[in-house]
Amino acid sequence: MNERCPWCGTDPLYVAYHDEEWGVPERDPRALWEKLVLDGFQAGLSWITILRKRDSFREEFEGFDPERVANWDAARVEKALTNPGIVRHRGKIEATVKGARLFLDIEGGEGFTPYIWSFTGGEVIQNRLASMADVQAATPESTAMSKSLKKRGFNFCGPVITYAFMQACGLVNDHLTNCPRHVEVRALSVPG
C-alpha cells in the first residue's frame, strides 16, 4: 500500500510541503542558503513551527537576499528581534547575517551550489528506507558538511541540522520506499 511518509501527519501545510517540496533536488544557491538558514532556526523546535513562520521569515530577511542581509547592522538585527512572526533568537539572527556574508564569499569563489553538492559528489544519494526506524539522524556526508561549514564560520549547522537540510533539498532521497514521492523524487534526481 502506498502511503506518504508518516512524519508529515495530516496538517495540510505539512502535507503540501512533503508532497511538493521535501526531497526535490535544489540547485538554486539562494534557495539552498534560505533552507540552511531555516534549518538552523529549527534547532530546538519542530519543522512545522518554522514552516508556519516561513513567509514571515522571508519577509523579515528580505526574500533571503544574501547581499541585503549581509549589510545588516546592529539596529537592523534589533528590528528583527521585535518581529513576532519569526523565531526571535539573537544568536540565530546574527548567525544569519554572518552566514549571508560567508555565502557571498563562497558564491564569489567556487559557487555555493557546487560547494553544497560536493558532499554527495554532485548526485542524489538514493536511500531505500522501509520505515521511519531506518532514517538516520546524521550521516558521514552530513558530518563532513557540518565540519566544513563550521570551519568556514557558519553557526547552527551541526550534523543533524545538515542532514535535515540534505533531506529537504534533495541531496538524499529519504522518502520511504512505500511513499509515492520516493519514485517521483528519484525521477527528478538527475545530476545538475
Description:
With 192 residues, the protein is mainly alpha-helical. Helix content is 55%, strand content 2%. It is built from ten helices and two strands.
Features:
192 residues; Endonuclease III, domain 1
Short description:
By secondary structure, this protein is mainly α. The chain is built from 10 helices and 2 strands.
Largest sheet: 2 strands, parallel
Number of domains: 1
CATH topology: Endonuclease III, domain 1
Number of strands: 2
* Residue fraction in strands: under 5%
- Helix fraction, binned, reads 40-55%
CATH homologous superfamily label: Hypothetical protein, domain 2
Distance between the termini: 32 Å
Examine the secondary-structure arrangement and name the CATH architecture.
Answer: Orthogonal Bundle
CATH class assignment = Mainly Alpha
Mean pLDDT comes to: 96
Low-confidence stretches: none
The arrangement of helices and strands along the chain is HHHHHHHEHHEH
Major sheet: arrangement of strands: 1-2
Number of helices: 10
Computed structural class = mainly alpha
- The outline comes out as globular
Radius of gyration, taken over Cα atoms and rounded to an integer in Å: 16 Å
Structural topology:
Elements (H helix, E strand, L loop, with lengths): L11 H9 L8 H14 L4 H14 L5 H5 L3 H7 L9 H18 L4 H6 L7 E2 L13 H13 L6 H10 L3 E2 L6 H9 L4
Parallel strand pairs: 1-2
Helix pairs in contact: 2-3, 2-6, 2-9, 8-9
